[in-house]
Amino acid sequence: MTRVAPSTALRADDLSFRVEAKSLLERVNLHADRGQMVGLIGPNGAGKSTFLRAMAGVLRVHEGVVWLEGEDLAALPAKEVAARLALVPQLAPYTHGFTVRELVLMGRYPHLGRFEIEGSADDRIARDAMRLTETEEFEARTLDTLSGGERQRVFVSRALAQQPRVLLLDEPTANLDVLHKLRVLDLVRRLVDEGLTAVAAIHDLGMAARYCDRLILLSAGRVLAEGAPEEVLVPEIIESAFGVESAVYRDPATGSLAVSVIGPSAGNGVPPPAARVNGWSDHEDREADVVAPGAKAVRP
Amino acid sequence: MLGTARLTSLRDFRQAGISRRLAVGGAVLTVLALAAALVSLSLGPVDIPVAHVASIVLSAVRIELADVGRTEQLVIEQIRLPRILVGAVVGMGLAVAGATMQGLFRNPMADPGIIGVSAGGALGAVIAIATGATGLFFLALPTFAFVGALAATFLVYGIAAVGGHFSMATLLLAGIAVNAFLGAIVSTIIIVLPDNEALREILFWLAGGLDSRAWEHVQISAPLILAATAVILLAARDLNLLMLGDDEARAMGVRVGLTRAVLLAASALATGAAVAVSGTIAFVGLVTPHILRLVLGPDHRVLIPLSAIAGAVFVIVADTVARTVVQPAEFRVGVLTAFVGAPFFVLLLIRNKRRAQAL
Ligand SMILES: Nc1ncnc2c1ncn2[C@@H]1O[C@H](COP(=O)(O)OP(=O)(O)O)[C@@H](O)[C@H]1O
Ligand SMILES: [Mg+2]
Questions:
Q1: Is A2 exposed, middle or buried (0-12, 13-18, 19+ CB in 10 A)?
Q2: How far apart are CA B194 and CA B231, in angstroms?
Q3: Burial class (CB in 10 A: 0-12, 13-18, 19+), A288
Q4: How many CB atoms sit inside 10 A of residue B28's CB?
Q5: What are A266-284's pLDDT values in tens digits?
Q6: What is the C-alpha end-to-end distance of chain B, expressed in Å?
Q7: Which range, B56-65, B157-166, B345-354, is most confident?
């Protein structure tokens, strides 16, 4: 049996997952020390969500082991896992008329016994979580009255109310405006500096470089590159993963790496006019995917 | 604390904590249930003053209020009280099972009969009547109905779990198929049945009713329905999380497969027990949780216990109206709940749609 160092909060060993003949994850590895933030990057369909769901125990992999604080995740009771690890899903689920406060309080579920109801301590934890993501003002509203970005922040709140030691975030900033994007990532980074461990799928390469200690680049279910942002965000690697030509430079304003997408790389050019549905919009979508994802629809 | 908190509108009430919603809602509904039961006990071919009713009921705990006649005492104790109690537990079982099914299917239109329970119960009862098995022993009819209800549920569940991978969508479709199939068998039996008396009995049973229910019916249905309600109540918070999706629930620490199987079994048991003693009483399981959800929100820790009491009130009131409006004839309670429940439900839908558009 592999011994996992106590400082390793989360480790994934050679995870493989297939659907029918298609391999969605192919021997994917990750390790995240306590107080580290690891970014998952990669094109649409690379397997980022699948990987996160596997590490949350939502999806049972066919091969490989996930170690949560040195213990085999598959052998831990689901409630015990949820008390230590929280997942912010990519798509907010339909919430059937629950209010924001009720949803955030659900985060206390793994900490409560079957005969317990949430007490004032839980109320306080939920309130703090809402305050941190600035969702307090919506607390009495149902989720269907919120915008996509507001909903996303509610689910971040719920994960915080879970008081996890490991936080998995699946594109937590995809629907957020620039200010809230910074606020949510600043918040996660601050919690990481206080000892939380985070793994986040982030589409915006610049943001990923700026907030994460290490990046893992997934492509077609495999790890294409792994390391410090400087090691992963290299034009050749970006080109092989995303099929775009780019320039990587240190942004003088922020001091962190920035990626400028110049255009589709040769052989991956704009399709001929006949194949283009909306003229130039196809090209723009591709670019938006790499640099800054546009607002994605969240299920009502 | 209660005094200082303002209760300005239902909207504020929706925002109150669960303990408060439970306490206030529970108190209001319990008073309604007691009042409905008292009025129902006093009405009938022999009108008995409410004071006498109270006196007879309290005499059970050795409190003598007024002198009441022996007949009145017998009518209350042997006819009306068991009937009302059967009505109360049936309403409770149907409403709780309805709320649970709606949560499991994540759909407010789910009915407790959705997984074949009612159709199975109907077939069991029809077989018992058609074969003359009802004469074998006193509770033969409810026994056959109960066995039929559970057998149909197992069949539907088995289909949805084929191949080791359980699917709620398959459960729903299998339920529809089994309902249709069992309904066809019932129709066939009715058509080929030579015996007119048995036919009348079948139609009577299918329409759902509480006439001549005795203490034995209370004894067989109440323990099952109360136990099922208790089990569902213990899993109410898990059901809240299940409503958000299997993955969501799993990520929050819910044992999805086990919880769902337990909840389905408990609802099938409650529905089966209700169907066994009362036939198919329509709309209680659909309308009751729906109305409560509008006022109290979707939290099953509030919804389940209050649906239990509200379902009891619904059936007691419906049965009282059914057996008093067209005296000396009797209206079937199952027919009445559909007559009243369906238009009321449509009204609610329209009102809700208007409000949603106004927002
Ligand atoms: N149940 C499934 N059946 C078939 N393919 C699937 C299934 N779930 C996911 N996929 C595929 O797996 C790939 C990885 O998906 P996902 O992990 O969501 O990617 P990402 O989050 O990186 O965009 C995608 O190509 C997706 O279409
Ligand atoms: Mg994804």
A1: exposed
A2: 44
A3: middle
A4: 13
A5: 876 555 554 444 444 444 4
A6: 33
A7: B157-166
The domain of B252 spans: 20-358
Asked if residue B8 is part of any domain, the answer here is no
**Residue B64 located in a structural domain:** yes
Nearest ligand 1 atom to alpha carbon A171: 21
Say which residues have a Cβ less than 8 Å from residue B16's Cβ, sequence separation at least 6: B5, B24
What is the value of pTM for the model shown?
A: 0.89
Answer whether the bond into residue B328 is a cis peptide, omega within 30°: yes
Burial zone of A160 (CB within 10 Å; 0-12 exposed, 13-18 middle, 19+ buried): buried
Q: What is the domain count for chain B?
A: 1
Query: What's the rounded Cα separation, in Å, for the pair B73 and B117?
Result: 37
Of A78, A102, A145, the CB nearest to B250: A78
Angstrom distance (rounded) from CA B289 to CA B300: 10
Neighboring chain A residues of B240 at a CB cutoff of 8 Å: 98, 106
This model of the complex carries an ipTM of 0.87
| Span A208-241, pLDDT tens digits | 999 999 999 999 999 999 999 999 999 999 999 9
> Is the CB of residue A68 less than 8 Å from the CB of residue B261?
no
Residue B4 placed within a domain:
no
Residue B175, domain member (yes or no) = yes
Give residue B36 CA to ligand 1 midpoint distance, Å: 56
pLDDT-based confidence at residue B63 (cuts at 50, 70, 90): low
Mutation target among B105, B106, B250 for the A interface, most CBs of A within 10 A: B250
pLDDT digits (tens, 9 = 90+) for A8-60: 999 999 999 999 889 999 999 999 999 999 999 999 999 999 999 999 999 99
Which CATH number does the domain housing residue B129 bear? 1.10.3470.10
CA dihedral B263, B284, B209, B229 (to 10 degrees): 30
pLDDT digits (tens, 9 = 90+) for B162-217: 887 888 889 989 999 999 999 999 999 999 988 888 888 888 888 888 888 899 99
- Report residues whose beta carbon is within 6 angstroms of any ligand 1 atom: A 19, 22, 24, 42, 44-50
Which of B312, B336, B320 is closest to B89 using CA atoms?
B312
Query: With contact defined as beta carbons under 8 Å apart, do A78 and A60 qualify?
Result: no
Q: How far is A142 from chain B (nearest CA, A)?
A: 10
Q: Please give the full DSSP string across B218-236, using - where no structure is assigned.
A: HHHHHHHHHHHHHHHHHTH
